[in-house]
Amino acid sequence: MSASELSELTLLELASKLGKRELSSVEATSACLARTEEVDPKIKAFLRVDARGALAAAEASDSRRKRNASAGLLDGVPIGLKDIFLTEGLETTCGSRILEGFVPPYDATVVKLLKEAGLPILGKLNQDEFAMGSSTEGSAFFPSRNPWDLERTPGGSSGGSAAAVAAREVFGALGTDTGGSIRQPAALTNTVGLKPTYGRVSRFGVIAFASSLDQVGPIARTVGDATALLQILAVHDPRDSTSARLPAPDYLRELEGGVAGMKLGVPREYFVEGMDPEVEKAVRAAAQAFEKLGATIVDVSLPHTKYALATYYLIAPAEASSNLARYDGVRYGLRAKSAKSLREMYFQTRAAGFGPEVKRRIMLGTYALSAGYYDAYYLKAQKVRTLIRQDFTAAFEKVDAILSPTSPTPAFKLGEKLDDPLAMYLVDVFTLPCNLAGLPGMSLPCGFTRAGLPIGLQILGKHFDEARVLRIGRAFEREHDFHRRRPPL
User: Is 181 a catalytic residue?
Assistant: First the structure.
């Protein structure tokens, strides 16, 4: 099998061939490295490639396979990591100059789980700085590009992860989702992105943006691939106080159950003025497809959706303001060299190290938490957050899951929204309510525009009901070939 043919395999197809010893992990990893060398100068998905480490892990995997001592189903499958995960011995910057040169002394829990499962890690993938953005244009280093149109964004903040998967540089990747940062780039790149329930996957060793919203999840080419990665990650971690003690089911075993008899809700508030008509048409066609598969489509209402954007942009910046206070030049990362006092060092380090979007959100969050404004802004936002969560609870009394667009538009051009922060924030209008409510959500391919740009369908489920979300997505995927199309690189 040629390197080109090998790179077209899905993650589970590769795992099967590795298990049968039809291919080696070294061959697969070498193919990924060759593909990355070929296309990444155009895509710019990677911040750094760890060829030596990945090949060493691949050799160890092949050795285990020869001894019939496989570490698991995905042993030997190469994967990439968003640059937000602490990775022992490998520079981790979170897309920011303030952490340039920082090499963590230990692994994040999810990185440790992947290594224990035998997956070679090819390197660290580009992102918006501290995960604050929707286009990777907020990266301190360079923007990533969408493999479907190099003039357009792959989305963000996990844009590098989605671009690498879409461009066949890796078989899967991990991202984080604080307001849509896995699902939105997945929708824009024709990949599958899963945000698990808050607490399902450990956040220990994940550089924090907004601690009550952040969640780790996979980006892959198929629902099955994302399911296999979730199976590795969904483990209780005592080092994360928000990690749920609820055991994970066998997600792969439940994947092919279909949707017959299910009730799927379509919220009227998620079809708004200004959204791209081709996106609406594709998502409504997807809902009709589920009816043909035996599901019942039900109109539902989530009345507080109109407050979600404002609520999110008070809570997330407030938590970011607190989390990012640790980057002061004292312990690690960038330190201003010309400062003559501690106060000057703080000012100069943070001024030089943080980009404009991060500074904007720190200032907004600090203001919302300041004396005299806490009750009026942050506390009020938390109360509205409760109302948004109650909307979902009421809707899920009538339906098993909810269908909606992932993004109101297909991928937009790089630079198009860069000078208009509000326009940039609006691209997450359909994804961030899920984070406010702590629900699981997934985006999967459901069509293309006339210009050939991907469109994503979002499936939202009840708390800790990832199995059903994945099952619904798989039922749609079985009947369509959108996920099999490759970008015209």
Answer: yes
